[in-house]
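Weekly structure sync, notes
Attendees: PL (lead), two postdocs, one rotation student
Agenda item 3: pending single-chain targets
PL asked that the sequence for the first pending target be pasted directly into the notes so everyone works from the same version. It is reproduced below exactly as submitted, 633 residues in total.
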Amino acid sequence: MKRNKIKLKKNFKRSLAFLVISSLITTIISGCNSPNTNLNNSKQLTSSQANKQPNIVLIVTDDQGWGDIGINNNPIIQTPNIDDLANQSVSLTNFHVDPTCSPTRSALLTGKHSLKAGVWHTILGRYMLGPEHQTLAEVLKDNNYDTGIFGKWHLGDNYPYRPQDQGFNEVLIHGGGGVGQTPDYWGNTQFNDTYFRNGNPEKTTGYATTVWFNEAKKFIDQKRNQPYFAYIPLNAPHGPYRAPENFIQPYLDKGLNRTMASFYGMITHIDGQIGLMRKHIKARGETDNTIFIVMTDNGSSYRPTNNQNKLDAKHQLIKQAFPDWIPNDNLRGYKGSVYDGGHRVPFFISYPNGQLKAGKYNNLTAHFDIMPTILSLAGIENTIKGMDGLNLATLITEGKDDTLSDRNVVITNQRVYHPSDKRPTAVAYKNWRFINENNKEELYNIATDPSQQINVAQQHPNVLAQLKSIKQAWWNENVKLGFKDRYISVGNKAENPVRLNAMDWMEVPDKQPVPWFIGHQPAAEEYDYIHWLTEEDKYTSLPWYIDVEKKGTYQISAYFHDIPAGTPIGKKYCVVRVNGKNTVQTVHGRASHCIVNTKLITGKQKITAWFTDNKETLAKEKAAFYVYIKHQK
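Predicted structure, written out during the meeting:
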């Protein structure tokens, strides 16, 4: 099949790269560490040179916006370590991502716009990164890097979309887009959780963010004769806002409400872990030869109001203590918005051996620039076609790059089942921002109006037309490439059994909610974050898309809640439908699941499962939120 051919091709390339490296051990390639290496002329490094390649630590926080760090004019939040890194590093101050997390992560790891990478949502199977795309981890692995991910993947929880299928040697992640979401291990709350190591559940101890950093340190400390790529994409400070209480209390003491104090507490905890990681790398003597990056994945998810009439008593105290503070550094928009506050984020990079010119650069840059830039700094040839990202090595080593002056970046927030050119979209070009949302066209000059309050579309019709044309060309290109449905492989030995969860239901009607967050809660005060636990009746079972790779007999086990819950179904019958054919099984007593054995043919198909008391109509009275499919060898 095409997917298997793609993976075989990647494995062949890795084997070929190893043979080439082995045959060139005595060869000396000059300039391999030059940060200005021409990508078309650079060569793979021999194993004797591998230790000269830079290590790479890439930290991505979740839902932390531009204004959620001290150095960006926030006098309340405490982020001394990030501020210190910013003052010593290259800071890209006009750096853009997608307005939500999975699209950003797909662009970051492929060097392509998120729509081109096939990721435009965070649920509904629209967040799965297809194996036809070569990831940063795969390229680095092909070039002698040891690769590890610790934290949030959110680009697919099943084969062939998992990180271990996409170039990572060592994996410790939670499921889905956040700890406690439907694909995650049942009962996780960010404290003493069970996460997935290379696909298998493993009990951990401590707070989630601490676990990710500690595991990354263990990975870094492994004895190896090769450079490493430690990817630390965090789940924090994504909601629900939870942190160790000693990080929350200082903000409560300042007068913040519980929600804001928890959000800021999560960020301050991250800041401390970043400081400890930098000390760890320094103690190993690797600071100079490490590319160290800190960035965030979209605008802030916490929206403090600046309207005095709406401020509660505690916010009034904050305004009195910090009268000049403007939330989000006065950027318009938050997470999900195509105004700058939704996608302009902090980005800091340090690499002493790369001779980077520390300072602030306001050139228009974006997340898909990171992959070609890292490959250039590592002296690795970039042979991937169709990249949207540009190599920023010249900018960050020489302090300028005139080739960036005329670029544009398109940002969109799709978050729908099928992408549409009617969805909110922005075009960034020089100082201009074209906004197309709700059939309205707006134009802003951020040089004079950084908070995007004054629509100047009528005053600059030529600029408006130019940016509209850019948007249309971008859209036409993506339509030509197409938008793929993603199918979860069944019958492949890489994952057997396959665990399906309701966050990946397909064909979801516009008005039906998606069960993406279970809702387990630790014994701590917090706001009532959206959840489906105890509200299961809101949901009607819908199909999963599967691709059966091997025909034969399969055991299909349908659960109301996941296996660790052991929740009784409470209905008389279980129904499993595959390609329109129903199989009905009796539910015995207080059983938590039913088992159906059936033969499956190869190919793409649909499967749905539910429970009912009515054997005649087979009404969908209660959804099966989890289904396990096991090939019977």
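Discussion points:
- DSSP finds eleven helices and 26 strands in the chain.
- Residues 1-50 have pLDDT under 50 and may be disordered.
Action: rotation student to compare against the earlier draft before next sync.
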